[in-house]
Amino acid sequence: MGKNNYKLILIKEGQFDLKQINLSTSTILLGSAGLLSLFIALFFLMSNTLINFTLESEIDSHRENNKEFADKINEAAEKLESIDQQLSKIKLLDDNLRKMAKLPTLTDDIRKLGVGGDNKPKKEQDFNYLLPEDVEHDLNLIFEKTDYFTRLVNLEFISYEEIDETISSKISYYHQLPAIHPVKDNYASSSGFGYRKDPFSRKYTFHSGDDFSARVGTPVVSTGEGRVKTSRVNGSFGNYIEIDHGNGFTTIYAHLSRRHVKKGQKVFRGQKIGEVGNTGRSTAPHLHYEVKYGRKSLDPSQYYFDSL
User: Fold this and answer.
1) What angle do CA 41, 46, 52 make, to 5 degrees?
2) Which structural domain, as residue segments, surrounds residue 27?
3) Is it the case that residue 275 has pLDDT exceeding 60?
4) Which residues pair with 242 in a beta bridge?
5) Cβ contact 280:287 at 8 Å
6) Residue 176 domain-assigned (yes or no)
7) For the chain, N or C: smaller number of CB within 10 Å?
């Protein structure tokens, strides 16, 4: 037995019965280390359990206290939906203005990209765990939408600056451009541009303009600034007016009941030039309206910008 060995003597109570256990120093050290490790493991296990319990309690407390905040989040999300709808209307208006200014329209990809950002999702910290479970909206999505709307508004602002600069440099051109409906109120579109069944021959023929059904006497207006090229009775067109708007554009107004302008007279956009009628080759009171560029007939629906 070495010098560093120890003896552990066990005495049974009430009996003279001794047991002797020899323990080496290494055995004692190993046992002590094992007990220490077990104690440390139990300590950390209990500590983590206590910490998790405390955190869960804190989070539950925050959730309870954040119910009013959650209501505000739901309210903000609803407002963002309203903003989204308004931005959709702005987009349509922007598209019309850019067409009118002969500028390329902004693609959906450009609008998604926006200005000064990218379309890669940002890594945001998730705060949804702090909210009550019955919250309807994802807080991170609200952050993303807000960021997207900010970039989209910046993009539209830049677009409108470009449109304004383009239109300002060609103001006379845009005054002359056919840009509104020739009949303002109480009408129905009865026949559009393109092939249709002719009401007389019942065969499919090309219709070079738009027809507006309205009562006899309904005002007809010039759709752009220009000078009256023709104002007369013109065969199957009946009472007929043709206006030269310059820049290669002319407009035609047919089947009128009355004409209020003469050849050579200058007219302005929105000025009354005649009244709806049923003259010439016509089956019912209506206005036949055409837009031409040179000798080519254009689809008039591409030149209605009344909402601008």
Assistant:
1) 125
2) 6-65
3) yes
4) 230, 252
5) no
6) no
7) N
